[in-house]
Amino acid sequence: MADLENPALKHFIAQIGTELVFAQVLIRRSDGNYHLRHVEDREQLAESLRELRLPEVRSWAQHTEAGAFRPLKSAPNLKRGWRLVVADAEGLGMALDAFYPGAIADWHAVRAGNPSVTDFREFTGRQSGMYRITAMLNDAQAGRVIEACCNRKFCLKQRLWTVAGLGADSVETKSLIPCLEPCAVFMEFARKAMRMEQQEKLRWDLAPDEVKTLEAVLKEGVNQTDASLREGDVGAANNPRRIQLVLEKLKPLLTLTNRDNDV
Ligand code: SF4
């Protein structure tokens, strides 16, 4: 590693030990090589996995198992069934950059203690054009939008940026890959969420048990794996993040419902 010029990669490799899980990629060091595979294929025999070549990694990471495009490479839907062997640090760096673009540099910035984190207010406050509207979300609304969009179901990056009333993510619930500022998927979702906040509200009286039915249906819907559904299409009423946002809004009602049942 003496000739490795990339300090971020050099420090990352020093952390690997015999193995390390980086989001959904398991990295093992053995025989002087780096062996990579999907973390859920940890116990699979090597012969049962397709051997990827380094130039294939980027296209492998482009689509989900169901064939849907992955606009967010940190989404927890990396295809399984592959393995990759790289012989040196440069190869490892290229592979990880193909799976998770920019992740090693961001990881290193956090480890070095100088990450450039931009919180929600600062980030949305400097938007112009179509995303200016996102700054109109109040703190509670922004908190719900963040909880929905950056939910572990949809993204494994550890969100370090915040808004008043909502803390950062932990490594344990997400991964070693930090998120330093709102991404394009988030901004598109936040724009749609603000547009929905501006709509005239409808009123609907629900019995506590009906609230629970609604919750059950929404929870089922949020886990859908319909290949025709584009993750980034926030205009679709059944977009999983939109369903999660409704679930976030339902939380106070569910708390009330459960409390009434406890009485
Ligand atoms: S803003 Fe949220 S969804 Fe986007 S990369 Fe960061 S944590 Fe993930």
Automatic annotation (TrEMBL):
Residues 22-110 form the DR2241 stabilising domain. Pfam families: DR2241 (PF18069), Fer4_23 (PF18009). It comes from the Bacteria. Residues 113-192 form the DR2241 4Fe-4S iron-sulfur cluster binding domain. This is Uncharacterized protein.
